[in-house]
Amino acid sequence: MAKIIETEQTIKKNQLPIRGANDLISLGSCIANSGMFGNCLPARGAVVAAICYQENMSLLDFLRWYHLTNDGKITMRADRMMAEYQRLGGTIVWKETSEEKAEAVCSYAENKNVTVSYTIDEAKKAGYIRDKSNWTKDPASQLRARVITRAVRMLCPAATAGVYTPEEMADNAIDMEMQIQQPQEQEIMRPAELAAQDQSNMPDPWTQNKTTNFELCPVEGIYFKKRWDAMPTEHLHLALTIANLENGHYEAINKAIAERERNHG
């Protein structure tokens, strides 16, 4: 019984004082204004608070484990990923850590003495080496982080919790940019489609671009198809945490919040 009471007291001690949406919004604003997480909006602060509450961790623990990117993505630090890997029984012995190559021998469970490496040539081939990037400022650290994530994801994926590191997120952004820049193949139309198009200059209703009014709330409920600027401020902050909205919706919500703060400032 004493152990149960002690556990309950520990949980209460670590959990943030959140009892409802208003507490979450208020705490999110405090986190954003504190500067602890850099360029953090109130909605992102609310997400951080929610994660801390659900995972029963303090804000300081969050900083130790995770990194909040400027675009609101939550990533796990490479050193924390390695610490979790080692806590679960994994080992890593560094053989080389230079600006040209990082190499380590890793073991976990039945996989013994697996050599994992990453070279600067691999990073160049992937297009990661860019002016003023971390790859040019501190390539050795970037190579070590790549070896850590490569080893942990291969040998002990449970240690990553399905989260990327900041280095992986930055490189993934470059990968996406390169894909967007690739020329798109033109769609080949069948003869029947060409004939149909020649017979009529009217646009195909099934292929017309559909326009979305980003000023209106698309979420089913009491505010469905209502203007963002007509909704309470606390609901606007909560709307920013919805993951399946389009970018235009987030821009409209932030605009409504900024105008309201200006008017009341």
Tell me what the structure shows.
The protein has 265 residues and is mainly alpha-helical. It has three domains: 60 residues, no CATH class; 98 residues, no CATH class; 45 residues, no CATH class. 51% of the residues lie in helices and 11% in strands. It contains twelve helices and five strands. The protein has a three-stranded antiparallel sheet with strand order 3-4-5. Strands 1-2 form a two-stranded antiparallel ribbon. Helix 5 runs parallel beside helix 8. The longest helix has 17 residues. The radius of gyration is 25 Å and the shape is elongated. The N and C termini lie far apart (53 Å).
Indicate the topology.
Blueprint (H helix, E strand, L loop, with lengths): L1 H13 L6 H14 L7 H14 L3 H7 E3 L5 E3 L1 H10 L3 E7 L3 E8 L2 E9 H7 L7 H4 L1 H17 L10 H16 L9 H9 L33 H7 L7 H17 L2
Antiparallel strand pairs: 1-2, 3-4, 4-5
Short descriptors:
51% helix, single chain, 3-stranded antiparallel sheet, two-stranded antiparallel sheet, mainly alpha, 265 residues, 3 domains
Q: List the secondary-structure elements in sequence, H or E.
A: HHHHEEHEEEHHHHHHH
The average pLDDT value, as a whole number, equals: 75
Distance between the termini: 53 Å
Low-confidence regions: 1-11, 172-189, 202-209
How many DSSP E strands?
5
In helices, the fraction of residues equals: 40-55%
Using only C-alpha atoms, the radius of gyration works out to 25 Å
Instruction: Decide which structural class fits the backbone.
Output: mainly alpha
